[in-house]
């Protein structure tokens, strides 16, 4: 197949490109900076320079492909309009460029778009959405644009994603090396997760299955764990024991407000804002992979322990920790 990938130089996008290469697909990637695309070049990917607001680049990229994997998006912004410009408007621009071109469109959204779950009741994708942050609302707005299109779409909402090349969970690994890890709340929040390589194969499964058209899925491993267990397992992958410092809601909002304000002053976006506390203090963020397994045959290959062990090894081999 001929595939277009946006966000191919990023964490999830690069794993997706590798999965498509293993299939023997012909890949085009929309990249903002060819200088950051050395991995893609080495894999034989055709590059088109541009972004989600470059009409000419989008139209060029979307021509003569069978499927679009829209991975690019903004996870940190200084305000809600910034999120919407990237995650809603950028998605709408890409959809417009697909007119008369590919019919299959796979959107990488986020569990944040669906909102939190109830403990013991993982989300399956057909529940009413209830995002609790500006980021989640912007991802849901992108989903709305996809659903309103004439494309044969599939939406994937990953939960927490970790793995080689990831820079967000890397922060937890670095804290674990110090022996002390701050933890929002009491550590009882229930979570689902998926490794980057596993998410990549889920996207391919969604993009090549007729049964997945018009469906929204949660791509994750079927195990759940608490936030306290997560940081303990990160430490274990490093051969470390840690002490957790629990941050109550009031203190967390204050700390996150300070980091968010500092980011705005310096003009640098961060995910650590007061708004993010609305996610950190929910009782559960869990999803069920059962519908995706039913419709595509996909299941995650790596358990959390296996995935974290592989991630720690990659970080060490590449000098990240």
Report on this model:
The protein is an alpha/beta fold and 321 residues long. It is built from 13 helices and 14 strands. It has helices spanning 11-23, 38-42, 55-62, 80-97, 111-114, 134-147, 170-178, 196-207, 227-237, 249-266, 277-280, 290-296, 304-317, and strands at 2-6, 26-31, 46-49, 67-70, 104-108, 152-156, 160-162, 180-184, 190-191, 193-195, 215-217, 225-226, 243-247, 284-285. The strands form 4 sheets. The protein has a 7-stranded parallel sheet, with helices on both faces. Strands 12-9-14 form a 3-stranded mixed sheet. Strands 7-10 form a two-stranded parallel ribbon. Helix 2 (38-42) links the parallel strand 2 and strand 3 (46-49). Helix 1 (11-23) packs across helix 8. The two termini are 38 Å apart. The mean pLDDT is 95.
Based on the model shown, name its key terms.
321 residues; alpha/beta; seven-stranded parallel beta sheet; three-stranded mixed beta sheet; 17% strand
């Amino acid at each position: 197949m001929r595939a277009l990938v946006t966000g191919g130089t990023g964490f999830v996008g690069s794993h997706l490109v590798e999965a498509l290469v293993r299939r023997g697909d012909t890949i085009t990637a929309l990249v903002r900076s060819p200088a950051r695309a050395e991995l893609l070049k080495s894999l034989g990917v055709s590059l088109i320079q541009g972004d989600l607001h470059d009409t000419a680049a989008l139209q060029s990229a979307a021509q003569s492909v069978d499927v679009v994997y829209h991975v690019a998006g903004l996870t940190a912004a200084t305000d809600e309009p910034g999120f919407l410009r990237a995650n809603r408007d950028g998605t709408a621009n890409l959809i417009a460029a697909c007119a008369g071109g590919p019919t299959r469109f796979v959107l990488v959204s986020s569990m944040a778009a669906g909102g939190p779950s109830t403990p013991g009741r993982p989300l399956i994708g057909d529940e009413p959405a209830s995002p609790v942050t500006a980021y989640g609302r912007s991802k849901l707005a992108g989903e709305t644009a996809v659903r309103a299109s004439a494309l044969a779409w599939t939406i994937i909402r990953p939960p927490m994603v970790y793995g080689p090349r990831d820079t967000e969970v890397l922060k937890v690994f670095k804290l674990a090396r110090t022996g002390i890890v701050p933890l929002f709340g009491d550590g009882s929040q229930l979570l689902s997760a998926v490794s980057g390589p596993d998410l990549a194969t889920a996207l391919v499964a969604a993009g090549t299955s007729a049964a997945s058209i018009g469906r929204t899925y949660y791509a994750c491993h079927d195990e759940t764990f608490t936030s306290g267990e997560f940081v303990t397992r990160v430490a274990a992958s490093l051969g470390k024991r840690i002490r957790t410092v629990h941050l109550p809601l009031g203190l967390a909002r204050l700390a996150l407000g300070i980091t968010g304000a500092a980011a705005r002053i310096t003009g640098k976006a961060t995910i650590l804002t007061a708004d993010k506390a609305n996610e950190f203090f929910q009782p559960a963020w869990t999803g069920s992979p059962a519908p995706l397994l039913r419709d595509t045959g996909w299941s995650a290959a790596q358990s959390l322990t296996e995935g974290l062990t592989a991630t720690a090894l990659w970080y060490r081999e590449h000098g990240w920790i």
